[in-house]
Amino acid sequence: MLSEKIVGYLEGLVKIAEGQDYKIESITFYNTYAEIPEKEKCEDTLLEMEEYLSGKNIEILSDGIELEPEDNVISLEDKIQPFDPTKINITMAPMALDSLAKRLRNHEINLNTEFQRKGGLWSKTKKSQLIESLLLKIPLPAFYFDASDEGDWLIIDGLQRITAINEFIVQKTLKLEGLEFFNDLNGLGYDELPRQFTRRIDESSLITFTVNEGTPVNVKYNIFKRLNTGGLELTPQEIRHALYQGKATVFLKELSSSKEFLKVTCHSIKTDRMLDQEFVLRFMAVCYYGIENYEGMPEKFLNETMDYINQQKQEKIVNMKEKFFAIMIAIYEIFGNYAFRKMAVDGRRRPINKAIYEMWCKSIYDLDDEQREKLKEKKQKLLMKYIDLCEQNDFQIYVKASDKYSYIKRMNQINDLVEEVLND
After folding, report:
1. Burial class of 383 by CB neighbour count within 10 A (0 to 12, 13 to 18, 19+)
2. Is residue 235 exposed (0-12), middle (13-18) or buried (19+ Cβ within 10 Å)?
3. Are the CB atoms for 204 and 134 separated by under 8 Å?
4. Residue 211: strand, helix, or coil
5. DSSP character string of 216-258
6. Of 324, 340, 369, 373, which residue is most buried, by most CB within 10 angstroms?
């Protein structure tokens, strides 16, 4: 029974839906659920909320990715993984801005072309006022770099500031505007400033923290995650992309844009923050790196899978690619547009669910060609049994949890269902 407080939340959604042809986006619905105090929720709250809106003839548009409970509560994924602090090698040192500019000119700081769009988040006025801070001798916040490769530093924190410096001093495309104190300098570029001002900029002292070679990659990942405070916080997959450059980044980009993957996911997984590439990575994690390596910490598991892919020979990469395409095709032939989603007798198409995606990828991957063909022939029986499974309380609980026990249990439940259909 929904409490008055939850009904109040839902009535707010009803008002929104009334102006949208009685439809509400799934992201709006699930974020409303996330905002409800935990003391107001029970095991069936989400289902009851859906039924309440359904009773008002409101359709929840479900082409997106389901917000799973691990996004709303603290899980093992949110905790920093243990590591040996003696292996952390971070140096703090002052650096003249002119030295930073030299690195930029010689392409020794990786602005990362995949993230270059994020380097232009600041307005021209904000960039100009950063340059004005240097003219006023106001210290800038510290910069953080991954300096494992001496000739190719990665920016951990400070991308917007470095982009402004690069555009003004190196590329010389930025003209000052909106200055609060040096109004006379508005409209001028770096080369047009009087020497006393360019000297002040060049000699400005910056505080830099460099994460040096030998620091474990998982430690770097957590440093990225904790310190990245720019205008657009990097997603976990974007951080992996920065840290694991190589075969893995090229591989994931190719597979996530393939027609097989786009078809089975109905083009519904967003590409702008690399969520699509994370889904491909999850396939590789459960099917190749191995669920036996899962320790209850999804981020660590996926990080290690990136490293695993980078270590593979080209022949294995080709094999993994072909197998991925075959599994995506097989899953679409069985589930159609309902692939990777919870199913129910009402026939409504629900959002794609990460945990269910992993379960079905692994289960179908483990079958041989003959078994897959047999499963396609029996897909109606499979779908009915899967609908029954989705309605079971324990399955719903296992799907929502990230601990290793729940992870293995839900995998086994899907495998048992498939085996039952094949042997029937």
Report:
1. middle
2. middle
3. yes
4. strand
5. -HHHHHHHHHHH--SSSPPPHHHHHHHHSTTHHHHHHHHHHTS
6. 340
Beta-sheet strands, E only, within 280-415: none
In angstroms, the CA 273 to CA 296 distance is 24
- The pLDDT tens digits of the residues spanning 132-151 come to 999 999 999 999 888 888 88
CA distance 213 to 194: 41
Burial of 25 by CB count in 10 Å (0-12 exposed, 13-18 middle, 19+ buried)?
middle
- The residue among 303, 301, 257, 256 whose CA lies nearest residue 277 is 256
Strands 153-157 and 109-110: parallel
- What phi and psi, each to the nearest 5 degrees, are found at residue 69? -55, -25
pTM of the model: 0.64
User: Would you state the structure tokens that stand for residue 36, as one six-digit string?
Assistant: 């409800």
Q: What is the mean pLDDT of residues 329-356?
A: 92
Residue written as token pair 């929720």: 41
